[in-house]
Design goal:
single chain, 34 residues, mainly alpha, flat
Length: 34
């Protein structure tokens, strides 16, 4: 996980935002890996 992602998680403590962020990270990671 990137520092940017970790910083974003730290700035968005709410469960809903954290969940959406995790989904976005997983999608981005999947797209990047292939």
């Amino acid at each position: 996980m990137s520092r940017t992602a970790l910083a974003a998680v730290g700035q968005m403590p709410t469960g809903a935002n954290a969940h959406r962020l995790i989904v976005a990270i997983r999608y981005a990671t999947k797209s990047t890996i292939g």
